[in-house]
Amino acid sequence: MHVGIGDIRKSKGLAKSFDWDGPYKLEGIDLEGPLKLDLKVTNAGSRVMVTGPLKTAVRIPCTRCSEDIVYPLEVDLEEEFLPIHSEEAMTRAKDLLDGTFTFENDKVVLDELLRQEIEAAFPIQALCTENCRGLCEQCGTNLNRETCQCGPEEGDSRWAALQDLKAGTSVPKPAKKPKK
Ligand SMILES: [Zn+2]
Ligand SMILES: [Zn+2]
């Protein structure tokens, strides 16, 4: 996806809008439903600014049970694109600064910006439901759908603590006498 900027390159301050409302494929991201952009592309002299809201939804796995969920997200874009052979772009490339976007041939290509912004908006934890029970750690059964016969693992300290609590023996046990 790109925006032609030949028309606004003529002088500083010129701007145009760029809208998109429909399906779009971004490599590496599972977009679910339409991508909506309502962008303003501005000639800011030495650079081109791209600003405005991005709305879409992504398909990602639940953190606990790995079932796919659809996660809607909204990001406000505000990014600058430098002319690819400009001194500033060259310097930044040399300094290996991340996140420098460039354009050439009067065309601002948006895909990489969109991908980065969407990925940055992914939640750290996404649950299919608030009470998702996740997968059994031993057999992998999805505990939201069925139960399994796995008991707690031997020597699981959390279980041991629970047992102690149930038995009312949560007081520390006396240390064993050393064997002779
Ligand atoms: Zn889940
Ligand atoms: Zn199990």
Could you outline the blueprint of secondary structure elements for this entry?
Blueprint lengths: L1 E3 L10 E8 L12 E9 L4 E14 L6 E16 L3 H8 L6 E3 L3 E3 L1 H10 L36 H10 L14
The structure holds zinc ion (ZN) (2 copies).
Structure summary:
By secondary structure, the protein is of the alpha+beta class. It is built from 3 helices and 7 strands, in the order βββββαββαα.
Q: From the alpha carbons, calculate the radius of gyration and give it in angstroms.
A: 27 Å
> How confident overall, as mean pLDDT?
86
- Order of helix and strand elements from N to C terminus: EEEEEHEEHH
Distance between the termini: 78 Å
Task: Give the distinct bound molecules.
Answer: zinc ion
Q: SS-based structural class?
A: alpha+beta
- Indicate the multimeric state: single chain
Based on Cα principal axes, name the global outline: elongated
Poorly predicted segments: none
Biggest β-sheet: strands ordered side by side in the sheet: 2-3-4-5-6
Largest sheet: 5 strands, mixed
Q: Helical proportion?
A: 10-25%
**Number of self-contained structural domains:** 2
What is the number of helices?
3
Q: How many E-type strands?
A: 7
Percent strand: 25-35%
Account of the 3D structure:
By secondary structure, this protein is an alpha+beta fold. 16% of the residues lie in helices and 31% in strands. It is built from three helices and seven strands. The protein has helices at residues 87-94, 111-120, 157-166, and strands at 2-4, 15-22, 35-43, 48-61, 68-83, 101-103, 107-109. A five-stranded mixed β-sheet has the order 2-3-4-5-6. Strands 1-7 form a two-stranded antiparallel ribbon. β3 and β4 (48-61) form a beta hairpin. Bound molecules: zinc ion (2 copies). One zinc ion (ZN) is lined by residues 62, 64-65, 67, 127-128, 132.
